[in-house]
Amino acid sequence: MTNKQTNYFIQVEPSQKIALCVMEKIEKYESKHCKVRMFLHGSLIIGSSLALIPTLSYLSSSLSQSGFNSYLSLILSDGAYVYSHLGELVLSIATSWPLPASILILGIAIIFTNSLRRIFQYSEELSHNYNPQLS
User: Fold this and answer.
1) For the segment 66-125, what is each residue's pLDDT rounded down to a tens digit?
2) 97 DSSP assignment
3) Whole-angstrom Cα distance, residue 58 to residue 34?
4) Three-class DSSP category at 131
5) With contact defined as beta carbons under 8 Å apart, do 89 and 71 qualify?
6) Could you say which of 59, 83, 122, 124 is the most buried, measured as most Cβ atoms within 10 Å of its Cβ?
7) What is the DSSP track for 31-54?
């Protein structure tokens, strides 16, 4: 059994001039797309850096209000007590840890590191695709 396919369309190759023009347009679009994304991720880096300052202040005040500082001073001052009551101390520290502030800092850190990674990725793409004739 043979599979006979008929081609009803004529295949035409574009001229070299048209292909070059299309490739230039694609490269311009990709370059512009990278620049816009770099700008947006740069804005996210600046915003997350600015948001980190009040969040750290919030974490500091939450730690002092929850009594975490007293547990920290106990750990640093009396090592024998810490070793003898380690389970109770860990449970007390876990219950006194300010979870909302920690989640905020973790979210901001994730946004910052992801945006920084993307900026490096897009800058590498721009440097590899740089064509001075297109600028």
Assistant:
1) 888 888 888 888 778 888 888 888 888 888 888 999 999 999 999 999 999 999 998 888
2) S
3) 36
4) coil
5) yes
6) 122
7) HHHHHHHHHHHHHHHHHHHHHHHH
